[in-house]
Amino acid sequence: MSEPTNQHIAVVGGGPGGYAAAFLAADLGMSVTLIDPEVNPGGVCLYRGCIPSKALLHVAKLLEESHQAKDWGIEFAAPKIDLARLRSWKESVVKKLTGGLGVLSKQRKVHYVQGRAAFENSTTLRVTEFDGSQESLTFDRIVIATGSRPAIVPSLKLDTPRMMDSTGALNLEDIPGSLLVVGGGYIGLELGSVYAALGTRLTVVEMLSGLLPGADRDLVLPLHKRLEKMFDSIMLNTTVASIEDEGTGIRATLRAQDGNTQEKVFDRVLVSVGRKPNSEIPGLEKTRVQVGPRGFIQVNKQMQTDDPSIYAIGDVVGEPMLAHKASHEGRVAVEAIAGHKVAFEPNAIPAVVFSDPEVAWCGLTETQAQKENREIKVAKFPWAASGRAVTLDRPDGMTKLIFDPQTERVLGVGIVGVGAGELIAEGVLAIEMSALARDVALTIHPHPTLSETIMESAEVFLGTSTHIYRPKRG
Ligand SMILES: Cc1cc2nc3c(=O)[nH]c(=O)nc-3n(C[C@H](O)[C@H](O)[C@H](O)COP(=O)(O)OP(=O)(O)OC[C@H]3O[C@@H](n4cnc5c(N)ncnc54)[C@H](O)[C@@H]3O)c2cc1C
Q1: Is the pLDDT of residue 211 over 90?
Q2: How far apart are CA 314 and CA 317, in angstroms?
Q3: 259 in helix, strand or coil?
Q4: What pLDDT score does 474 carry?
Q5: E-assigned strands of 120-210?
Q6: Residue of 318, 410, 414 lying closest to 360 (CA atoms)
Q7: 146 pairs with which residues across the strands?
């Protein structure tokens, strides 16, 4: 039985999880209050995450292509970078999108409160508004969508603007001569690529043995090769032992796994070593909400916490900390509150690294299959055999499909190459629809496009790929 939808719900946090939840709740007829410190909804993703980083990466790609154009017979003069204009363009993108969300809130009659919320009990919030005024508001249900913040390494804390987290890096105060990026995850590589394209000499240190831990190694390899050319140095199995503010720069002592150390001075340092959930919400202890050992709020598949009137979604409930996971969870929470029979149990959540080339994957990875001792079959299609990739002069890509050898079902998809982030959606659909190799191979893809590489990977699995020659056996 569905509960009546005329409930009054509060959503704490206006990121992609929070605003998606608030908007659906309003569409389902609920009375909705959305609370966030910013002037409009958007959260980390729109103000200091996905959107500003992608705007800057677009510019970085243009700069990189302008160099490559020389090979095609077109030579551009060295670019003149007007940093103030670049910054204001990035800010205008953020303003346009967050302003649009403000309009959508109003159109849906969502009561948007610019402020911060604290719990008085399971159904009452004390909201401190922007102007300092406070009020207590009671709701039928509360959805926590407070997101996450950059993780801080105590030994890498120095009180100087030369030290940056992702938010500081996106502010683009200047184009430093040299930048040390601590952490070879997606945020460090994306923001590092922006600075490198603008002319900064870049060093990345990663304590593990490869960039992008979590992605299959064969997907990371083409990216690593290209970044090696773009960056000054990529130091794996290396940690930052200490840092010191020298006034004119930051002296960093870098320690390799074998114990060897070297000192280098950088104009700026970007620390991007992961994110922490914002679960320390004042008064949360007055509710029955449970927080796990890593700081994530514990929820069931309906996104309900241990307190029946409180739901939680997005970065604050766990990995992967991605905007699209947050918004889908938000919609599930609201449907559950509305009494619909729903659960958040996707077969595939895509992950995209918007580097150049892009790396994207979804569903089962090869690494995961190996860890689980799971029998799989992998079919790969190198982009050197893709007409479209060659017309773009970007054959440095690869598409691979991971199959269940018995049922021939697609279990996972991995892509490295330009536009991989757009292509991966087809992989997600294939997995969610339980597509077989034959379904993908028989789906007519437009020519010449990079999407054909997905179809041809399925053909590789079936042994019938047009553009890959397979000598006959025997
Ligand atoms: C540089 C960078 C690039 C990224 N790029 C991508 C990308 O390309 N794709 C992708 O999917 N993800 C990306 N992410 C991750 C993405 O931003 C997050 O996964 C996403 O924003 C999480 O959404 P959320 O709704 O859980 O919370 P958030 O977006 O973190 O929003 C939470 C909001 O809650 C507010 N809040 C916190 N406490 C309170 C309180 N007590 N009262 C009221 N409000 C409160 C916060 O101020 C914030 O506005 C990126 C992140 C960073 C930092």
Answers
A1: yes
A2: 6
A3: coil
A4: 61
A5: 124-129, 134-138, 141-144, 148-150, 163-164, 178-182, 201-205
A6: 414
A7: none
Q: Is 53 in the pocket of ligand 1 (CB under 6 A)?
A: yes
Q: Is the pLDDT of residue 473 over 80?
A: no
**Of 200, 165, 188, 14, which Cα lies nearest the Cα of 102?**
14
pTM for this one? 0.96
Query: To the nearest whole percent, how much of the chain has pLDDT over 90?
Result: 96
| Of 47, 52, 50, 2, the residue nearest 28 (C-alpha) | 2
Q: Which atom of ligand 1 is nearest to the CA of 313?
A: 26
Please give the pLDDT value at position 360: 98
CA distance 255 to 96: 44
Q: Is 50 in the pocket of ligand 1 (CB under 6 A)?
A: yes
Contact 342, 302 (CB under 8 A): yes
Out of 146, 279, 331, mutate this one to test ligand 1's pocket (max ligand atoms within 8 Å of CB): namely 146
Strands (E), 38-122: 111-119
* Tens digit of each residue's pLDDT (9 = 90 or more) over 248-292: 999 999 999 999 999 999 999 999 999 999 999 999 999 999 999
- What lies within 8 Å, CB to CB, of 341 at 6+ separation is none
Helix/strand/coil (H/E/C) assignment for every residue in 345-375: CCCCCCEEECCCCEEEEEECCHHHHHHCCCC
Q: Is residue 315 lining ligand 1, measured as CB closer than 6 Å? A: yes
Question: Among all residues, which ones are annotated catalytic?
Answer: 447
Alpha-carbon torsion angle 269, 270, 274, 277, nearest 10: 110
At residue 174, φ and ψ (nearest 5 deg) are: -155, 180
